[in-house]
Amino acid sequence: MARFDINYLGCGSATPTLRHMATSQVVDLRDKLYMIDCGEGTQLQMRKMRIRFNRLNHIFISHAHGDHCFGLPGLISTLGMLGRKGELVIHGPKGVEDFMRSILAVFCKEIPYSVRINVIDPFRHELIMEDRSVRVHSIPLKHRIPTCGYLFEEKEGEAHLLREMIDFYHIPIKLLAGIKRGADFIQEDGTIIPNSRLTRLADSPKRYAYCSDTAYAPEIIPLIEGVDCLYHESTFMDADLPRAKETFHSTAKQAARIALDAHVKKLVLGHYSARYDDIEPLLNEAKVIFPETILGDEGLVVSLIGK
Fold first, then answer.
1. What is the DSSP string of 186-248?
2. Catalytic residue, candidates 28, 37, 67, 213
3. Mean pLDDT of 118-139
């Protein structure tokens, strides 16, 4: 059963506090790591959570606000000191490229690996990265500067072999790869053993949507319909709705409304305003609308595991 874990490194917002770190997450899918946002302290959180630096090849930045990208210079430098050789790809809107060009020119001139910046259009929903394990699409969001979220869609795996049937028909090992990909087995006398007798269907692919930072934006609902887990910013409580509108952020109730209308399976809150010493009230407000809500927190790991 393939691993699909979301590691929450930081769930705070722009103003630093002792309660929460700046925004960052790491998706662990089939033992490949994909980082989403990289606020200050991200690499320290990776150490605390025992996340291996050498398996990270892609970083997805939502927008060029410091609490989402100020951790990049230190992380890039550390990767160089650890002897990294392979390419690192940073995906994000144009503002992220502008920020990174100066960082790379001044502070990272001698790193022993290449950094490629993939500039994406934050106003379009499109495929921006694909490998053997996942497809990643952008999700246009509504914030003070061009911002996008990300949708991670696991690729369908190969069928599972039924070991007792493989043994019963004495199928050679060299044919197993083809059978996992859908081939039938032909016996020496010409009898065809259908693939459906030898395998069971692969686990249903899982989907994870990341939406931070954004004002209430119901237009994203069709893009995240039915995802297994949605992370949606919940910077404010409903009593501070005017402040949420002013700063282009969301309340916990608004995040829950998006989750409900999109029929997602689980909602994770995050990006909490520094004004709240206690974030339980945000959870309570959200759960009235969408009961399958949990609080994001540093060190949290949410696993999306096939049935």
1. E-TTS-EE-HHHHEEPPPPPPEEEEE-S-S--GGGHHHHTT-SEEEEE--B-GGGHHHHHHHT
2. 67
3. 96
How is residue 219 written in tokens? 């237009």
278: Cα separation from own chain's centroid: 26
Euclidean distance between CA atoms 281 and 185, whole angstroms: 59
Could you write out the three-class secondary structure of 145-187?
CCCEEEEEEECCCCCEECHHHHHHCCCCHHHHHHHHCCCCEEC
- The candidate with the shortest Cα–Cα distance to 280, out of 305, 258, 257, 297, is 297
Instruction: Give yes or no for residue 126 having a pLDDT over 90.
Output: yes
Query: Hunting for tokens 């911002």 — which residue is that?
Result: 147
132 in Cβ contact with 31 (< 8 Å) = no
What is the Cα 159 distance to its own chain's centre? 25
Q: How far apart are alpha carbons 293 and 234 in whole angstroms?
A: 12
Higher per-residue pLDDT: 156 or 53: 53
Answer yes or no: 67 catalytic. Answer: yes
Distance (Å) of CA 148 to CA 28, 292, 304, 306: 21, 24, 23, 28
Place of tokens 């070991």: 163
Q: Is the Cβ–Cβ distance between 187 and 170 less than 8 Å?
A: no
Residue 255, helix vs strand vs coil = helix
**Burial per residue of 163-195, b for 16 or more beta-carbon CB atoms within 10 angstroms, e otherwise:** eeebeeeebeeeeeeebbeeeebeeeeeeebeb
For residue 250, give both structure tokens. 């969301």
**Partners of residue 294 on adjacent β-strands:** 268
Pairwise CA distance, residues 143 & 145, whole Å: 5
**SS3 category, 138:** strand
What is the pLDDT, as a whole number, of residue 307? 41
pLDDT tens track for 52-101: 999 999 999 999 999 999 999 999 999 999 999 999 999 999 999 999 99
